[in-house]
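sorry for the late reply, my laptop died twice this morning and i had to redo everyting from scratch. anyway the thing you sent over, i finally got around to it. pasting the sequence first so we're on the same page, its 228 residues, then the predicted structure underneath. double check i copied it right bc i was rushing
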Amino acid sequence: MYTERASRLTGAVVWTNTPSEAGAGRVLPDGCMDLLWHDGRLLVAGPDKRAYIAEGAPGLWAGVRFRPGTAPALLGVPAQELRDRRVALSELRPAAEARRFAARVNSAAEPASGLEELALRLAADAAPPDPRLRHLVTALDEGRPVAAAADELGLGARQLHRRSLTAFGYGPKTLARVLRLQRALGLARQGVPYAETAARAGFADQAHLARDVRQLAGMPLGELLGRG
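ok and here's the structure:
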C-alpha cells in the first residue's frame, strides 16, 4: 500500500510503500529525485527520463520526494550524474557520514519520519535553491514554451540547458515533456475524457498524448490507468 503526505520541508513529499507481493513496480518520470530507505539502507533515486521498473521482494520502502531542482544542492551531486539510476547514499557522501545518517534514520520511530528529519538537516546545511529554477518549473508546469520561460529568466538557450542538466538531470524541453505527462495523468485519473485531457494538458491532440504516454510510461494510457 502506498501513502504520502506533505513534508515539513517546503515542496517535498514524504511517502511509504509496502508492496503486497514480489514483482516489478513502475515508477513514472516526474522531474523529481527521492531520498529512499529500504531494509536499513539509504539510497537516492535520480531523475528518470522513462518509466523505471523496480524489482524486488516485498518490504517497506520510505522516501522523501524533493521538489524538482532542489535535491542536487542537498546531496552535493549534479542531477545528470544520477539520471535513471538508484545509488547508495554512501556513493555520494563520505562513508562515515552516510553511516551516521543511516543510524539516525534506523533509530527513528518510523523510517519515514527519520528520513524527513535527515532531509531537513541536509536542507539547512545547503545553499538555498536558485529561485530562477523554481520559476522555470512553474512556467513549464503551466504549459508555457521553453523559449518564453528562458526569456522571462533572462537566460540564453545554452545557459538554461546547462543549468537544467545540473538541477533536473535533463534539458528544459525534456522537463516540460515530463511535467506535461504528469498534468495529463492527473486529469485522466479524475475521469476527464482523453481528448479533453490532451487539450487541457497541452498536447497537440489525443494521438500526441498517446505517443508520449507510450514513450515515457512504457504502456498505453488505458493500461496505465487500469482501464485496459
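Residues 2-125 form one domain.
thats about all i looked at so far, will dig more tmrw
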